[in-house]
Amino acid sequence: MTTYLSQRNIARVAVFVVVMAIIMSISLLVQAHDAPEVALAAPRPVERAETAPEPMAMVDVADGLASWYGGAFHGRRTASGRVYDMDAFTAAHKTLPFGTLLRVRNVETGKVAIVEVTDRGPFIRRRVVDLSRAAARFLGVSVTPVEVDAISKDDVIKVLSAENAPALVLDAEMQPATIAPEHLQLVKAEPSLRQAMTNLHDGQHVRISLNARGAYCYERVTLRTAQSPLIATLR
Question: Are 8 and 66 within one domain?
């Protein structure tokens, strides 16, 4: 009789333990199901640039008046031998080598542009640069005070021909800088400096390079961030 009761008690305890285990498992599953989703979501990483461009110095050319020239010269040969296009971003300067890139800042508005020296002039006192019509319109220049800085084509070639050459870029303020090409992503190759600048969006840079003939090429690029896939690496 005693043996029978002990076996029955043991069976009851076993059933009780099994039932409690099932109840606890169901309770844990319900709690996990009802937990707020935000607690399970991983925080979204903040995108950041892999590296920042290294600023490149420009030469202070002169402060003075900028003027412009247009229709009467359109289609004619410039002093450099290139045909003048009043819709391109070019300029005339008295002495700077052809191919020099000028950063021209309208003192009255603060607006800036990059232009390429392709011609000689102006030959009027106090005027330091003659802009193409398109560049003058972009800057809001008629006969207007400007600040002019320059980077020579020789300096551009020196940067781009160095061992492990960096990319040369311009920011929204048209300040030149260098950066490793793998940190750039291509947005669009532009047919001209004018289109590269006028199509420039926030957060973008203009990349300057040279083709096989030594002419400038322009691309709109962005800085690759830590979270961005390397879609198009530039070299």
Answer: no
DSSP state for residue 182 in the 8-state scheme: G
Are 92 and 160 in the same domain? no
pTM of the complete model: 0.75
155 DSSP assignment: H
Among the candidates 99, 124, 152, a domain finishes at 152
Q: How many domains does the chain have?
A: 3
Q: Is 17 left (phi over 0), alpha (psi -120 to 50) or beta?
A: alpha
CATH number reported for the structural domain that contains residue 84 in this entry: 2.40.40.10
Strand order in the sheet with 204-210: 54-55, 176-179, 167-170, 204-210, 216-223, 184-190
> What are the two backbone dihedrals, phi and then psi, of residue 187, each rounded to the nearest 5 degrees?
-100, -55
Among the candidates 128, 152, 176, a domain finishes at: 152
Q: What are the pLDDT digits (tens) for 73-131?
A: 999 999 999 999 999 999 999 999 999 999 999 999 999 999 999 999 999 989 999 99
User: How far lies 213's CA from each of 5, 142, 158, 209, in Å?
Assistant: 104, 34, 16, 11
